[in-house]
Design brief:
- This protein is about 20% helix and about 40% strand.
- The protein is of the alpha+beta class.
- The N and C termini lie far apart (about 165 Å).
- The chain has 2 domains: about 90 residues, Beta Complex (RNA Polymerase Alpha Subunit, Chain A, domain 2), CATH 2.170.120; about 90 residues, Beta Complex (RNA Polymerase Alpha Subunit, Chain A, domain 2).
Length: about 250
């Protein structure tokens, strides 16, 4: 009996070793975890509302399951959709994001980050605000700015209602007046950066600048003028004077 146990012992040992390796392979398959980065998509948002807080655009998802199932998952197969349909202005918390994922049976989501998302919705409003012109530099000596205006004088800003309440004006990019000595018109861009508001349509304005002589301007003395020397008279001036005395 004992002799039969040890009969073909080498073959039996190889079979045992193969069984152990196969067992570890199968166990490794069942415990395999893969981390995916899935886009977060905010769907069915009303045209009258907008998202007015910082929300994540992707989520890190850790999935556990057999290798054969894991290799069949591509990044395009995984996405998280947050349905905003029917919501009104306010803050809504979305939890249990994994429930919106469709993954093959046999796979399990072991971790998702973030685990929830808070979405703040606000009504979209428009507001017309005046345009403030930014002038830089100084005109040519002897000239000052008489007036300036923009066309149009006001432009519309659109966005989140709460932020829009604090918008009282927009400003132009700087207009350089250095060495300018005549009236001019220039189209300039509006410089505006809002968190949840933006220029609705108009992005530029025309600025018309009118100059005038400076009444307080005193010309600098001629560097070649010497008060000790008598003024020079031309020959033509002398002849004219002589004719006038005759």
């Amino acid at each position: 009996m004992i002799s039969k146990v040890f009969e073909n012992w080498l073959l039996k040992l190889i079979s045992l070793a193969f069984a152990i390796v196969l067992w570890f392979f199968v166990m490794g398959e069942s415990r395999m975890e893969v981390t995916h980065v899935a886009p977060l998509e905010y769907e069915n948002l009303s045209k009258e509302l907008m998202i007015a807080n910082e929300v994540p655009t992707s989520a890190s998802i850790r999935i556990s399951g057999p290798r054969a199932l894991q290799v069949n998952i591509s990044p395009s197969d995984i996405s998280l959709g947050i349905d905003l349909k029917g919501l009104s202005a306010g803050v809504t918390s979305f939890k249990r994001l994994e429930e919106s994922l469709n993954i093959p049976s046999g796979l399990k989501i072991t971790r998702i980050s973030p685990s929830y998302v808070d979405v703040k919705l606000e009504r979209i409003r428009d507001r017309d605000v005046p345009v403030r012109v930014v002038l830089t530099g100084e005109p040519a000596p002897g000239f000052i700015v008489k007036s300036f205006k923009t066309i149009p004088e006001k432009i519309a800003v659109s966005g989140a209602e709460s932020e829009l309440k604090g918008v009282s004006e927009v400003v132009t990019e700087g207009i350089d007046l250095t060495h300018v000595q005549e009236n001019f018109s220039q189209v300039v861009a509006i410089s505006y950066i809002g968190n949840y508001t933006d220029l609705k349509e108009t992005k530029t304005v025309e600025v018309q600048v009118v100059l005038q002589p400076d009444p307080d301007y005193v010309a600098p003395p001629d560097p070649n003028y010497d008060p000790k020397l008598p003024p020079e008279e031309s020959t033509e001036a002398v002849n004219v004077g002589g004719e006038g005395t005759e």
